[in-house]
Each structure stands twice: as structure tokens, then as C-alpha cells.
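Before relying on records like the one below, remember that each one covers exactly one chain. Contacts with other chains, cofactors or solvent are not represented anywhere in the record.
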Amino acid sequence: MSRTPPMSVAVIGGGAIGSAAAWQLAARGHRVVLVEQFGPGHGRGASHGSSRIFRYSYPSALYIELARRAGRLWRRLERLHGQRFYARTGSVDHGDPAAVQRLARSLHQAGIEHSVLTPGEAELQWPGLRFDGMVLHHPDSGRLHADQAVAALQRCAQVEGAEIRFHTSATGVRVSPSGVRVLSASGSIRVDQVVVAAGAWTCDILESLPTLSRSLPALVTTQEQPAHFAPRQTPVGWPSFLHHPGGQYRGPAVYGLAAPDGVKVGEHGTGPRVTPQHRDFRPDPDGVRRLQQYAQQWLPGVDPTLVEATTCLYTSTPDGHFVIDRRGPITVAAGFSGHGFKFAPAIGELIAGLVAEQGRSPTLFRLGPRVSEPVSAGRR
């Protein structure tokens, strides 16, 4: 734990990342207030629902180590909170052999248990799935219950002394020699440091800080639409999966997992551009049909006619890498590009270190312009 003098810190945004930051900061003795514009468990951002994939399969050692640390912290959070919200299910990557081989090499170098299967071998183990090209199985991956995990982060932050103010909309931030003020309709909050973890609302918050705003990479918000299919048999003992285009399958990257409310399937990053203030929350019928067609071809264990679609938000950077960096008394955590939830407690730790000026952010996560170079997709 940090031995730096306690500071007052406001965290803007009560999703997974902001809640994790509040927990880690409060656990280090800082005086923390978390402000969230909506109520507990709301469904207007990117941190709601019953399921998120937890996985280690990334081509970058940075992400693998971040996942390793996050896994330990999720288990610690379960012990502290006294409730289980993580289920070990295993996970598979399949499809494009070059992409899957690259992931297998990364897992090998990191010492993560894994095995490589043929499609036929994988289908004998999991007959409800159809596989393509090369199949990479890593058994220590799993599923997080998103709503329960966020509630646990918030509760543990409160136990450590953090204050949470729901239904409090931050409208901007002002920096002066005497400190920082978070502006809201109900008044201002004066603190030493501010963490902006506002998801799709990040650019709106930072409009009041034009120099910092200009240093953000371009952030694009899209309304994504995963769907839940009814399984033909229960319980569904499947691993989560990520289908990399490039083998027999040539569509967008698709992810899926068995969730409490059905088998969740989604395309990665294909939704229409929106703003968080102007979205209709209605799944696009063409997108639903594409998922049904995918299920018909690749998921023999579901009924493709029994489908319930929903929506959520991605806020993405051009290269798919996160923004986690500090400028003066402001730390920004944004652009998690549809694959940040699994890392939340480790990102909270990183944010707490930046606030205390303990080291720098990894180069990939720093503020500044980005070029389009997507990371391996589909990390829900």
C-alpha cells in the first residue's frame, strides 16, 4: 500500500473502472468521493448485465500480465465481499490460424496453461459449438457477472471509507492553484486530484479542460448489440469463445459465452456511432439477423429462432488500446474499446499509482494521438 500522504480524490464515473479506482484509492487511505450521474446498477453505459468474459489470450505480454493481476484481485474482492461473481469456464479462440498461433505463443511465453486442438477434437468436447481452423483452449479463463462485480467494487470502496454520490452529474472540472473543483448542478466538490472514468461521457467532462481534451486520442462511441440465445440443453458447460475471421468464417469477429440469461453472442465493434445522450437503445434488426445466421451456422447448441437482443456502449480508441494517464491533478481512464471490464481491479490499481505519482503509465496507454491498429478483437 502507498505511504504517500492522504489526498482528497474525486472519481467521476461509477462503472467498473471508476468503482475499481475508488476502491483502490480508498484502500490506500485517500479521501475518496465517487460521483455517478445515474443510480446503482443502471444500464446506460458499458458495465451492466450478467456476463463479461475474463480471459488471458492477448498477443501482448502487457495485457496478459494485467489480466493475471486482475484475476488475483477479482478473487480477493470476492473474499472481501463475501459473494461469488466469477465462474471458471475456460475459453477458446478459433478461426484464423495465424491469429490463434500468435495467441498460443503469447500464452506459452507467459506460462499460462493452454492446449491446441483441431476443430474435430474441440467439437467432441463441446458439441454445442462448431469450430473453425485452429482451436486454442485456456482453462483458467471464465465469466464475470458484471452487475454483481460492480456492486462488489462499490461496496468494498465504501468499506474502505469512500463516499458514493449517485444521481450526481459532473458537468466539468476546474483547475486552480488551490486545487481542483468538480462541477455539478448541485454544487462543486473541491479536491486535490480528480480521476475521470466517465466512459462515453469522457469528452463532455473534459471540454472544460481544452489542453487535456486535445491530448486525448479520438474516442468513438458505438451502440453494440449482443443477443442471448436459448440453449437446446442445460446446463451449458461451454467455454467462452472468440471467433477470429480468416478461416472459413469471413465476417466480423464474434464472441460468445454461456450466461445466466442464455448464450450471449455478439459482434465486436460493428454498432452504429452514437452519443450517450442520443441513442435509441433499440437493437438493429439487420444486426440481429446476422447473429441469428451466425448461430445457425456455428452454434448447433442454441435455437437461433429464440433470441433476445440488447444494447450497450463501446467507447473505442483508434488502436484499441486504453487511455490511462495523468496530466497534473487529472488522471484520465477512457477508451476501453469493448475489452476493459475484465481488467478493472488491476486498472484501478494502476490509476491509484498514477494519482500518488508512483511510476508512469505504460507507453501503450498514454495520452496523445493514435493510429488505427486494432488489437485482437472481441473482449467482452
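The chain has two domains: 8-48+147-218+318-365, 87-143+221-316.
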